[in-house]
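Subject: for your reference before the review

Hello V.,

The reviewers asked for a structural picture of the protein, and I figured it would be easier to keep everything in one thread rather than splitting it across files. Below is the amino acid sequence we used in the manuscript, unchanged from the supplementary table.
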Amino acid sequence: MAPQREDTLSNRPELLAPAGSAAALHAAVTAGADAVYLGLDAFNARRNADNFTSESFAEACDYAHLRGVRVYVTLNTAILPSEINQALECARQAYRAGADAFIVQDIGLAAELARTLPQVRLHISTQMNTHNAAGIEAAAKLGARRVTLARELSLAEVAHLSAVAADHGLEVEAFAHGALCVCYSGQCFMSSLIGGRSANRGLCAQACRLPYELHNAAQRKDLPSPGEHLLSPQDLCAVDLLPQLLDAGVASLKIEGRMKSADYVFAVTTAYRAVLDRIAVSQAGPGQGDLVAEHASDEERRSLEEAFSRGFTTAYLEGQRGNDIMSYGRPNNRGVFVGRVAYARDGIAALAAEEELHEGDVLEFWTNKGHFAHTLGVVALDRDGFVRTSPERPVGKGDRVFRVRNAAAGFADDALAPRVQVVGSVTLRIGLPLRVEFRLADEQRPAGEGVLAGRSLGGAVGIVEGSLVEAARTKAVTADDVRVHIDRLGQTPFVLSSLDIQLDDGVGIGFSQLHRARAEALENLERELLASYRDRTLPRVRARERVAPVRERGCSITAWATNPACARAAKRAGADAIYVPALNYKRGEAVIAGQRSGTAEQAGYPKQCITALPAVDHDPVPDTREERLDFDPWRYVKPGKPVFADSLGSLVRATEMGALAEVGPHVPLVNRIALETASALGAQRVWLSPELTLGQISDLAQDAPVALGLTVIGAQELMVCEHCLLMSQGPCDEQCDVCPRRKSPHYLKDRKGFEFPVVTDALGRGHLYNGVTLDVAHAMPDLIGAGLSAFMVDTTLMNVEETSAAVARTVRARDVALRDGNAVAKIPGATTGHLFRGVS
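And here is what came back from the structure prediction:
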């Protein structure tokens, strides 16, 4: 019998910790994690972590399962056409090695895992952008057992979605601690389009942590802000909201941090384990069933701050979305304040420390010329009790000192810890076989003693019977002799809790026999504990039925328009269809060149425009902006009419309503199985991801099961954020629908002088765009030849004249390509995105 918790997720929440390395895995388990999530060499969103190989992964599974801890494998990236078979085989081998669940972003991989490996749990990654009930329903259709919710949800929304998930037989997982992305997960193309490293491929370059200036284009100067890191949020810390999260129905509390150290994993997991255990004790007392408001102690909070902190926030969980959740001043670990420089001379700095310092502590000095890190050597005090050290750069009296690593709180890695507590028995009866037996202890000791904490792991037993016991020829063995030689478990993962010895008088036995029997009994115990994992076999799988290819006739030119004037200009220039965002249909919400403008609404939109549903639309739960502004994009969706769905949930819901759904590029469908899955869910057309190359598009379009389209001209959206990027310039009343700032064009300027336009929509969500316009109209012959049948011009940041010119250029490019295979000239200064250069 494999070790399992007696408790279930229905009555005990899971604490899920990151394991970006073997040491971090050991730290997580030692600190009390119920489950860990980790990545293999490829297909995971933290490819720069010290990920596991197939060999080290099997060892990791044995280590975790022996201690009753579940192992989840992250396969949470977009899977390219050439990789899908490799990704599936990776999952199959991980299952054989002991994986308990797969955390997946790609809908094709998710559907195929549910079909071919139904024995293992499918968890939907936060990368899939699940933030509403439609997303939960979509996850259920994929065969998921759990959904990791978007981090941009309030507690009320979490409770709402937990209830929806329960109705579909799913659990929800929510982040409780760690780094916050300013962009919705799975929706960020910034690292990819400006640096060639895709966040959807596990290589985010963290461009959001770099310095930027916010400018009003009309003023041509940077606007005042509290700092220069305008895209850098603080870190999430929900340790004091655990009762509310559990009351909301969260089954698993997730700690972010696969790129962080074992010290961090140990400190954070320890703190959350302690608070969760206090909540469990509180529930077991008077008023059982009521969650008591347990909070972290000062010591626990300090350990969290020292582990890593950009400043802590509960952010969206408590309805915050403004400047208070941002770390404008610095994008990295700020640690804890420990004192100031008392004096500095001759290269020596004396620190008036308010905390005990230790050799190996990493300190950060903040001077008037910047800040730098310094590792403290042997702690030496002067006669006034100040700590003397020799920093690498000049410091001055009064400079602040922070500790960003506490050496005394570091995690000491031990690959055998925590030890699993066992109860042993030895029978030495003359004339009967020697018998040694080990079974797991019913209760494990509290944490902090180097053994497993508070876990019941099952009833497995390891037994060995040896040769017949004989009477002593010389000296008889004593019970103490037996105890000493049986209790030598030092190089095993076990520790002896108690030992029952049944010993006849006058027994004689060689101690080597006891050693062999002890070792073999423990091996048998370990083998039985892990049997269900080690004995796994791969199921025979029937071949997947290929969906018939779709051959769409024609080659249409479409335009994305956010105001009636540009929509009409696009129509006059030859666009076959106009897509209008649902947010811009309402009178007063037209946006021209990224600005609110009433002048663009003198006439209505052309007839038969196609509604474009947003990538983010929260359910109208009380206190959401959708509820306050009575925004319901679904009022525009009609049976039998086309609709543009930019999330998986929108695709499923639109299809259920009888609409003809097209899938937008914010759902990365980048392999054939993903296209087949989308088609099965009702997709009529798929607008391809901007991260695909021409060669990959050709691979996808060959016998594609659904019509394909691509944006060929326009501003490329880099981010969609719950936080409004215009807030950094000063106080905001959050009356987003009438905000005067939205009437002026804004942009972020980076250190190299590049400008990234900023648009805030009526719901206050920020949208960041690439400052260099995409134009691949000159590649029209190749795109048509690849099999694409629709091409879009995105006019979001264009005025009427620019819209007319862009649509006319695209129409001409199509006509020339179809007539004689020629191409229009390439536009200087435009970008071709990833069409010819790909991503890492």
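For the response letter, the relevant points are probably these. The domain at 14-180+234-321 is CATH 3.20.20.380 (TIM Barrel). The two ends are 43 Å apart (CA to CA).

Happy to draft the paragraph if you're swamped.

O.
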